[in-house]
Design goal:
Two copies of one chain form a homodimer. Chain A is of the alpha/beta class. The first copy, chain A, is built from 17 helices and 24 strands. In chain A, strands 1, 2, 3, 4, 5, 6, 7, 8 and 9 form a nine-stranded mixed beta sheet that branches. Chain A has a five-stranded mixed beta sheet with strand order 10-14-19-23-24, with helices on both faces. A three-stranded parallel beta sheet of chain A has the order 11-12-13, with helices on one face. The radius of gyration of chain A is 23 Å and the shape is globular. Chains A and B meet through strand 5, helix 5, helix 13, strand 17 and strand 18 of A and strand 4, helix 5, helix 13, strand 16 and strand 17 of B.
Chain lengths: ~500, ~500
């Protein structure tokens, strides 16, 4: 344990998870580490849930980096501890609480959260709970498989609880690059000009006096399995790579492309995975998560450096990471999400953003978050941070869902997360629509023709043509029909007209 | 004229507007100077319209900085010359063409256009037509009352036509600061850390060989009158200034605030004007347009420096500018819109953005562009560039329009330009809703209570309460009713239920 807690004075702070959890009182605001089910605290939240399940009333506002594992969101949601939650989640129980109206959820751009905290927009942070692989001699914190918002939570919280997780290898030390921008009006340019620039410290500045408790645990990251690469993902990846090849051919992209950002999940993993077999090489990634396909790209020598705020592989991917940590540490930089998702850096680097849509409308607006306009699925995450500032912004989706009963191309999306102004390319397994320089009606024709499923193509064209004779012809809509496809699905279980 | 055309070799390029206009051929893409009715070319477009009105067929794609005056958008639209138009307009005839479907209009973030041009997303630019006060000895161009996209058009166009406008005083020389970022992957940080940093040249780099023709003209900027400061604007301004005072009191804003960005138009002018009477001083502005109230703020010693891409005063304001140009030149910097509207700089400086909404919904989504969801009014302009990256993003609107028949607070906006994720504060004459850290339902209650007109408050509450029992409770909506207020207005001329 000497290697894990290097500051001798901190030995007395080691305590049980129960003792640490007792520090959390009703009404507090707690900020934790964790971005995707990776690097989040586990023992203390489980102990807190336990306390509440035994009868005590504790409700908190919970801030994280992004989604976290079941030991945090799941256990606390089941116990009814989470009164308010931000900025992102993917866990079943917390999602159900949100959609029942029992938990107030703020679905935020992930680059906004650290600013909101630092500017005091969310009030005082009582405790930061941060998973670490070690604490340095000076009492600074070496994070584990994610950085997320830990630096800002540690900076702004009254006190800090550290979970030393011995399942996380000490060899992760050196992979992190922690940089904290000053607040306006004293902020200077973030000095990143290339994805592989290191600009900070390998630890989160903290100091021993701020640490209230240290808990030792060995609970592993509760990572999620990645779906197999299916035919739809493979086709989407194929369309996208062909498009990149064309862009290189006409001179609009360099031969090694530009730094790639790819969203989370099986389709995103497959899209990036498609590059392994492509002719592209000497790639860089400037993204927020590293999934299994990134290891494939690194091992194939295709990716020179991947900058991110989290490593969130499958169970097998986690073993692969741990077994080859010295290798991957040279090819991966983990940054605070304030930097990984920073609009300034994304625009400077000319990122190619690739994110998953839940539905897209004929004019190119994207819904990333809401099922049928009202139920939260996960959240916008970092997709907006990258999309708005990308050199090339791409959204991918299967053309249909629920066995064909949902068309993912609709007349009007039921919730707007990314507007027509920000979406350059839409890809489904049917094909790709390049929307750059196209007016709304031109976009509609491309999206219907190239991306919609043939089953829904005529219905969409019919809507467009009738809308062209309804009101204004700039963005033609029939207002009392625009959301009728969703209403039909709610009422009949299908968007098809029976 | 020696002072206006300082490169001796260029004397032979001087020609009539008709001769210059003859260079523009059918099918060309033309990029012009101009941002608001300020600094746009006038003589050549009028001559081009004339040529077409005499029977010749010419249709072009017209790119500008933003809106321009009647001599460009109006004359060419009336003559049917504009086939495609971007990124912004405010002129009656071009707007009518757009809404009749005769002109394809791409409504873009104003910081996106220069990138689209430079990255080749819009194809070749055949001609740049740029208004100037002078051409330097080296053949570089000194712009007039706006910079807009002129630098990138001059850089990327095959040839350049310069309109020397003798109504624009030579004393404008030195007010401009022209900086051009490199393309990714070679882009470096934009070295602006304060609104008053000058980082470029006082001219647009061009060179004599690229100049195809020079036209001398004295047609003045066709500026628009500003509406009088009415009671609604005064109340909005009052709510906002009280809010700023509170933010300073609790330590979330410095005493001299942070750099202010303010949209275009009478309400925006009034909001900024309210600061003249306030206790705030030593202010900076980092914005895209300078209207009359900025002169008041400068004269009152309240604003130390205003950075912008355009000066667009009223007729009286223009006289005031010309009469005191030496004075204002020390307090104003005109930058390319790629810099004035740059997300990197906006986020670094911590801009306070204040833009005008057409309508806002109960969840904080904003429609800036479309009348009843289908008809284009003007465009998104720079509002998105600033809103998304502001430290504090504000939208203002009157609570009603059309004598009360339109509620500007609706269940769901009929077009989404700024999503719930980006809007922090909404202000109407009724009051102010601070949406920071509020979930959708919390936002709805604040907006209805604080911002909606009393006439519509009960109807909105009724919608919200019924929606809470419809589907998901995260963002409650009744899909077949969400846009019914707009439909009712179309059918009955009022959103009220008769």
């Amino acid at each position: 344990m000497d290697n894990r807690i290097r500051n001798k004075g901190l030995a007395g702070k080691v305590c049980s998870a129960e003792e640490a959890a007792n520090l959390i009182k009703d009404g507090m605001t707690v900020g934790t580490s964790g971005f995707t089910p990776s690097g989040y605290p586990k023992a203390v939240p489980l102990a807190l849930a336990d306390r509440v399940n035994r009868g005590e009333k504790v409700q908190i506002t919970l801030l994280t980096g992004a989604s976290v594992g079941d030991e945090l969101d799941g256990a606390l949601a089941k116990a009814g501890v989470i009164k308010k939650r931000l900025p992102y989640q993917t866990e079943k129980h917390i999602r159900d609480c949100i959609n029942r109206g029992e938990c107030q959820y703020i679905d935020m751009h992930l680059s906004h959260t650290p600013q909101y905290v630092r500017y005091g927009f969310l009030g005082k942070i009582d405790y930061a709970i941060v998973e670490a692989v070690a604490i340095t001699e000076d009492g600074h914190i070496i994070p584990s498989t994610s950085v997320g918002n830990s630096p800002v939570f540690v900076e702004m919280a009254e006190r800090v609880i550290v979970e030393i997780n011995t399942s996380q290898p000490l060899d992760l030390e050196g992979i992190h690059d922690i940089y904290t921008p000053k607040n306006p009006p004293n902020r200077e340019p973030i000095p990143i000009s290339r994805p592989d620039d290191r600009i900070g410290t390998p630890y989160i500045p903290c100091g021993p006096e701020k640490i209230a408790a240290i808990v030792i645990t060995d609970i592993r990251d509760n990572v999620r399995p990645l779906g197999p690469i299916d035919d739809v993902s493979r086709k989407i990846s194929g369309h996208l790579i062909a498009f990149f090849e064309d862009e290189v051919k006409v001179g609009r992209l360099p031969r090694n492309l530009l730094p790639l950002q790819s969203g989370v999940g099986s389709v995103a993993n497959a899209v990036l995975g498609g590059l392994v077999e492509s002719r592209f090489e000497n790639l860089y990634c400037y993204t927020e998560v590293i999934q299994d396909s990134m290891f494939d790209l690194i091992d194939a020598g295709k990716v020179l450096m991947a900058s991110s705020t989290s490593i969130t592989p499958s169970e097998e991917g986690l073993v692969r990471l741990y077994d080859n940590i010295e290798h991957y540490r040279k090819k991966i930089i983990l940054r605070p999400q304030e930097i990984s998702n920073n609009p300034e850096v994304a625009r400077r680097l000319g990122v190619i953003s690739m994110n998953t849509a839940m539905e897209v409308d004929i004019y190119g607006n994207v819904n990333s978050t809401h099922v049928m306009g009202t139920r939260m699925m996960n959240g916008i995450g970092g997709s907006g941070d990258f999309t708005r500032n990308a050199l090339l912004s791409v959204f991918t989706t299967a053309s249909t869902a629920k066995g064909g009963d949902i068309s993912c191309i609709v007349p009007m999306v039921s919730h707007h997360d990314h507007t027509e102004h920000d979406v350059m390319v839409v890809v489904t397994e049917q094909g790709l629509a390049d929307l750059r320089g196209a007016s709304p009606v031109e976009r509609a024709r491309k999206i219907i023709q190239n991306c919609a499923h043939p089953q829904y193509r005529d219905m969409l064209t019919d809507y467009l043509e009738r809308a062209l004779h309804a009101q204004g012809k700039h963005t033609p809509h029939i207002l009392n029909e625009a959301l009728s496809w969703h209403q039909r699905f709610i009422e009949t279980g299908t968007m098809k007209i029976k």
